[in-house]
Amino acid sequence: MALPYVLIALKRLFVIIFSTVKDGLGTAGLYLWDFALLLFNFVTPDLPAGHVIPEGRPGHGGEWPKYAPPSDGDSRSPCPGLNAMANHGIIPRNGKGIKFAELHTAIQQTYNVSAPFAHFLPRGAAQLLTRDLAHDTFDLSDVSVHNMIEHDASFCRDDIVYDVHQTTIAAPVLNDMLSSGTGAGGNLTTADLSRFLGKRRVQCRTENPQFSLSLSQKFIGSTNAAFVYKVFGGIVSDLHAFLLEERLPNGWEPRVRHRAGLTMLEINKTIGQIEFGVPQEVDGSMQAPRPAAGSSSPSKKGL
């Protein structure tokens, strides 16, 4: 016998409310944990340079496991950070069968981010892929789903209309970004990253008739920019290897030397600096005319 409409609706409403509350409490718990680690970092001295990665772990003393670019059949993602770990064998080199439950430890130890920060990516990926965080696995290519962590106007990938698999490094775009630094020695500042993100958004919005970029996706882009600024210090020589080869440079260690790692609250400040500093969001550039939706496939142009 079919269930009455009211009963079905009430059950669905309960599931929605329960899931929302559960996710909200989980996020709140991670932020409370992160705040405690922020305070811990404030009252404890930073680790000495050269000792950010503990002895016995990959990267100690700047000695990373052997780098090998992906082979045919290997799985890769739009995320240079995940791909670099696979290229060094920190996670499976073929990028397949990665356990959600183990990924956060690899992220935390490789990039010296706080434990709750490291939990966010596998937790979010498991939710979006509707998989179990504690028991399931994924391939790196699984997170290439459009508008998950992949998004238009990325600084390291062409829009999905040009690169469906999102595995090809957008070298011309990256070279343009890496040459735009105004900091000491030509290194990148937060203002440089704001200007470049805006420039990239305007270009993609103008050229790509399938362009989409919501506010949340803009913040994902700013999060990526904040990551390379904080973890790599905006240092262009290191970023060339990381972004153009998806390789951790010899002798490199995370520039954040806090004992509990880079916290979400700390990087959120940098994310805000970058996103709210994008001039093209307020000067009318993002309201420029766009190509018609039914026009022929757009051609890629340099920035």
Structure description:
By secondary structure, the chain is mostly helical. The protein has nine helices and two strands. The chain has helices at residues 5-43, 80-87, 100-111, 115-128, 171-178, 190-207, 215-231, 236-245, 264-275, and strands spanning 98-99, 137-138. The chain has a two-stranded antiparallel sheet with strand order 1-2. Helix 1 packs antiparallel against helix 4 (115-128) and helix 5 (171-178) runs antiparallel to helix 8. It starts with a helix and ends in a 28-residue tail after the last helix.
* Share of helical residues: 40-55%
Major sheet strand order = 1-2
Which secondary-structure class do the elements indicate?
mainly alpha
Secondary structure tally: strands: 2
Please state the overall shape, judged from the principal axes of the Cα atoms. globular
Tally of helical runs: 9
Strand content: under 5%
Task: Map the helices and strands.
Blueprint: H1 5-43, H2 80-87, E1 98-99, H3 100-111, H4 115-128, E2 137-138, H5 171-178, H6 190-207, H7 215-231, H8 236-245, H9 264-275
Antiparallel strand pairs: 1-2
Helix pairs in contact: 1-4, 3-4, 5-8, 6-7, 6-9, 7-9
